[in-house]
Amino acid sequence: MKYVDEFRDPAAIAQTAAEIRRIADPERHYRLMEVCGGHTHAIYRFGLKDLLPDNVELVHGPGCPVCVLPMGRIDDGLAIAAQPDVIFTAFGDMMRVPGANGSPLEHKARGMDVRIVYSPADALKLAENNPEKHVLFFAIGFETTAPSTALTLLRARDKSLHNFSVFCNHVTIIPAIRAILDSPDMRIDAFLGPGHVSTVIGCRPYTWIAESEHKPIAVSGFEPLDLLQSIVMALRQLNDGRAEVENQYQRVVPWDGNRAALRAMAQVFELRPYFEWRGLGFISQSALRIKDEFSEWDAEHRFQVPGVRVTDPKAAQCGEVLKGVLKPSQCKLFGKECTPEHPIGALMVSSEGSCAAYFNYEHRKSGELVGIGA
Amino acid sequence: MCLAIPGQILELIPGPPLLALVDVTGVRRKVDLGLLVDENPVPGDWVLIHVGFAMSKISEQGAHEQMQMLRMLGEDEAAMEEVSGYGQGVSTSP
Known about the structure:
By secondary structure, chain A is α/β, with parallel strands linked by helices. Chain A has helices spanning 10-23, 37-45, 65-68, 71-81, 104-109, 120-129, 146-158, 173-182, 196-201, 207-211, 224-240, 259-268, 299-302, 318-322, 354-373; strands at residues 30-36, 56-63, 86-90, 114-116, 134-141, 164-170, 190-193, 217-219, 245-247, 269-271, 274-277, 281-284, 288-290.
């Protein structure tokens, strides 16, 4: 544990890690899925796996919005942006994600007007300042980000701003968890629930996981101690034969979520009948579309969208990694053709993607060790 | 993507929309308070910010711990780049 001394309250961390080792039944194997990509990043960064006994396994979930976006949606967004006088805007995370004909950044190099924004509100401002252009905001994210897009659309309507639209790729976490539980090759014993998504949706939407699926879930914060405490909560439930929703991250996550955020989302969005997830396939009612009354600001309504479907490169095994069936290093391309510098799959692009996290913290570490030993 | 950045409200900017001038370790930017309308935010409050919108109120201690955690995660620079970027690049020139 290279970083342990830098942590807040290292004594509590050592104690909690000891508690995990004490309560983990050596006769059992525990598979816990951390749903959120931020958790995946933190687990690798802090080397938390080194603190866990071998029979407590962490499986990385689908909660990295960049990673689950099918490649065709990037090409669709770029096809809209290829029309005259369109400015393409997106968060920085999106810029290096490859579409079939290159990433947004590569399109920029070929002359497309592509700009990074840090907030959807800034995309709106760009539209106000460029009345002769159309500003397209490529929206991605789970419920953490969707309320901000919703408020931005409400502001666009209030301002009667007609040269702005959103290409909506917002997804919702609950159907993804359901798809994982329904998948025959997935055996998950318990979940570590996402932190910031839950500040918006609260804990109530998870109750079916406990009540109908009889799986424990502990909504977790991002610090090492948070994650270890959440693991203790999940193991205790499993050992006791309980299945409940527990909230380890109470200092940030209210049980009922953020009602203003939920109101804004309900005003602007409705569920799509189905949406494609990279690696998981089509999942019903798993994504948001813009309601008809806001269709003027819906890029899919205003523009011809080609509806591109691109299969991932055959050798890349993003789907299996995304579902936790394969570890990143078991993919044939990992660390060879596919690296953070030259990503082939989206899991290698985002710092929240399990391949990038694994590469940066595990693969490089083992490389260093080999170097020292040689 | 899911960075939650702690900051302190310095002053409210009357709306609508309800905005605030927020300080994040010395960098001051306008942040949208539209998701906190039920919580009556006032100057001095600490908030978690995500993509330019304050998403929840937190304690001062919680704010310091969050910034420390971003440092531990190696994401403090990305967080400051995000905050510094709010309201930038919105002019006509690319």
